[in-house]
Amino acid sequence: MNYRKWHAGQDWAVLTEVSEDRKQRKLTRRMITFREVNGRIRRGEECHALECFPRVSVERALRAAGFKFRSSRRYGKWLLPARRLVFIATKSPGTSQT
Fold it and tell me: Core-most of 11, 28, 70, 98, by most CB within 10 Å?
């Protein structure tokens, strides 16, 4: 999961760099954005440091909190990258909050 990509439109661009430390279960996503506003270029930066959890740990936590859930390799019509899952979770009304 180490890669770079970019997307651009008529007056914007986003450059993304993703690096993963599998041993530490960490994922870092750095983004640089460019936007043209009133004839001037605006630049922004963001860094997202994420902790990656094993599937069984997420499932255990969801069950303990009273959620019913399913997992999927898709988010809507989009197939997720390798080793990624989405959890769709619901809690019945009246279930206590934890």
Answer: 28
